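go over this chain:
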Amino acid sequence: MTTIHYDITKDLHYLQLLAQSFPTIAEASTEIINLQAILNLPKGTEHFLADIHGEYEAFRHVLKNASGNIRRKVNELFGTTLRETEKRELCTLIYYPEQKIELVKATDSNLSDWYHITMHRLVAVCRDVSSKYTRSKVRKSLPEDFSYIIQELLHERPDDADKSAYVNVIIDTIISTGRADDFIIAICNVIQRLAIDQLHILGDIYDRGPGAHLIMDLMEHYHHWDIQWGNHDILWMGACAGNDACICNVIRLSLRYANLTTLEEGYGINLVPLATFAMETYKDDPCAEFVPKISNGAHELDEKTMRLTAQMHKAIAVIQFKEEARIYERQPEWKMQNRELFKNIDYKKGRITLDGKTYDLLSSNFPTIDPENPNKLTPEEENLMHKLHHSFKVSEKLHKHIQLLLGHGCMYLIYNNNLLFHASVPLNEDGSLKEVEIFPGRSYSGRELLQHTGMMIRTAFQSDSEEQLRDYARDYFLYLWCGPDSPLFDKSKMATFERYFIAEKETHHEEKGAYFRLRDNEEVCDRILDAFGVTGDNRHIINGHVPVHASKGENPIKANGRLMVIDGGFSQAYHKETGIAGYTLVYHSRGFQLVQHEPFTSAEDAILTGADIKSTTQIVEMSAHRMRVADTDKGKELKGQIDDLEELLYAYRHGYITERERKKS
């Protein structure tokens, strides 16, 4: 047996602090035993989602069913002992316990029997999903009312005949005291909670769908989650920070998809001034190019509402292009003045010149533009923007949700040998990391680029930061949204203007950056992983942003498994384009599984018929051994704590530190 000798004098101050938490040899030893046991538990299940785009109902259902993980466990537990309809009913109960109980009470004549059978089955499922956690962690996830009862039921062996009567009495008493409904709801919520240990959202909660604010309400109370900001999240963050170009973009996108629910009902943004201005300014304009896109399943708009929406859409788009131009003028180092396209229009002929070529405009009705000074807002537009700016500024709920994004988010995350980010790491054509200027005279690449970008974003919300830097940070949200070298955009241009006003498709093309052209190259992916300090044999890049066209045979697994793209079109607006309704990635103790989803119908359909999201699971990568906590980042942290505690034991036993009794509280 080798005796380890420590240089205690070097760490004595730290060990004295540690001794305050573990004042005796017995307590330090007990903690070492506890941590060693945790290291040998199976790795917790990680869940990856990207590009949710306001699809609250589908998102909530995927969380409830853990991307099919709960159904998989029910199948493993009950196999052929339950019919398919019974397993489906049990899963639906776990997802939507309150609603399913009400349905059963209205249709089942033998409710007591149903309660008995159902509670035994739910305890079995809960026992299975809790098996990879410590009792302490499970206990913390239990509702106070039923904590003791659930613990008793979970830790009794179901095959122990001596205990079966004890268990049955507990269940009988729950029913006889009228607490069966509450108990079932509580244990179903615990199953949902324990089925996912960590949720990773790879950006874009906002825009397109109607429920971004509801998603944020849900995340406010979710147990463990992180987010890597997406370009649409950044747009809303910029609007919240007071960037008027971002405010215009947020409103324009909401009008483009005829989705004002998040703006008006979620955040109380007053759009009446915009409606009044649009009706007066564009009353004789059909605004044909601005008729909103209605997704499948969305409510149809009547003709009058459709016309008003198109008028509002055009009004805010014109102001947006002016507001963007003002920022480009303020920040010439971005070299984006070529996007001030109102300067390129011949207003008498209704034509525009781009890259030396002239095109007819689809519409040349611009009543608020002065050809001599096309980027100048009219007094009416200035007044409107002042009102909209104020509405965003005073929205308490919006600011609360953006603070939640700041608190749980960043530009990238390294977690268990996986590099997570939303869109891109800018590259040169040869695959090397590209230097990008963030602040005049300050350029960064790779990990430093994303770190400093994250710092810039936070600066915009810090009242104690230097005013000039804060103003620049506020402007920088626009560059992150549409700048050529932005890690959240990484294209030659955002052709919003061209798509509205020019018929020729050649002008709509947005050339993707080198990252998107080279990301299927394993060597390039390894170079990025090296630059971010991600090590290990099974390391990966995981991102979203660009929808995978599954219907055209595109594979979300790229670079020989090094990179996984999990944007499969969660948003209804993308379903026709991608052919599916999104991907989710599950990383459990046995490896990676990619789950491909078909469109979600509704929670009501799931409750009434037991319909679940139809999903196809693809095995991406399986581990040679079942991964333990010891194999994870958390395991490294725990091993470090064990090393410190062993050093503390050495200090106690060799007289460097004296044991003391813990003070009684």
Summary: DSSP finds 27 helices and 17 strands in the chain. The CA atoms of residues 495 and 508 lie 5 Å apart. The longest helix spans residues 303-330. The first strand starts at residue 46 and ends at 49.
